[in-house]
Amino acid sequence: MASQELKHRVTHDADTKAGGGTTTTTTRRDKKMAMAKRGLRSLLIAVILPLSLTLFSAYISSSMSRANHHMDHKTPFWFPPSWALHLTLPASGFLMGLSAWMVWAEGGFHRHPVAVVLYVAQLLLTVLWDPLVFGAGASRVGMVLCLGLFGCLYGCMRVFKQVNHVAADLIKPCLAWTAFLSIVNLKLLSA
User: Fold this and answer.
1) How far is CA 92 from CA 2, 68, 111, 156, in A?
2) 179/17 Cα distance (integer angstroms)
3) In angstroms, rounded to a whole number, what is the distance separating the alpha carbons of residues 93 and 52?
4) Do the Cβ atoms of 2 and 10 come closer than 8 Å?
């Protein structure tokens, strides 16, 4: 009898599935796989939403009647072409979506609710800047938006840094680009 206990593993009903024979390691693996799928789905949503909003914003501004009003006058050599300005805003939206997802995944939006407000505000300002400046020609309003966007991005960086340092570092290129947009906007004001 003692030799039979050595040869056969004793299984309890709690450790097996209804299919029989599978242990809790399979259920753990299934739970991890389901969690990974949810994480990937949330990452896709967090990145695609701001990316699509900024692409839509660029489309709206380029389809408006005065889309290239800033090219009517002589521009300095450092002034980027309008297509470059339209494409960098979605790149900024992508980076912000990725950093916001990193903060969300670590529970930072629950611990720091102001992070959500700053993130949504910067997303709104990013979406509004392109059509107002290039579509409607409202350079003064665009300058105010740039300053507000810079403030929101800086606030996001400070709050995100408390949760995830990498997420905060992803915001730094967005800050640099917004500072450059402010210079472009200033040039549009003086023209």
Assistant:
1) 68, 22, 25, 13
2) 59
3) 9
4) no
Plot region of 20 (φ>0 → left; ψ -120 to 50 → alpha; else → beta): left
pLDDT in tens, 30-81: 888 887 788 888 888 888 999 888 888 878 877 774 445 545 556 667 777 7
The DSSP line for 50-112 is: HHHHHHHHHHHHHHSTTTTGGGSS---TTPPPHHHHHHHHHHHHHHHHHHHHHHHHTTHHHH-
Q: Please tell me the pTM assigned to this model.
A: 0.75
Q: How many Å apart are CA 79 and CA 187, to the nearest integer?
A: 9
The span from the CA of 15 to the CA of 5, in Å, is 18
Checking if the pLDDT of 106 tops 80, the result is: yes
Q: Which one-letter amino acid corresponds to residue 186? A: L
What is the chain's Cα-based Rg?
25
Residues 6+ apart with CB under 8 A from 146: 129, 178, 181, 182, 185
What backbone torsions phi and psi does residue 141 show, to the nearest 5 degrees? -65, -40
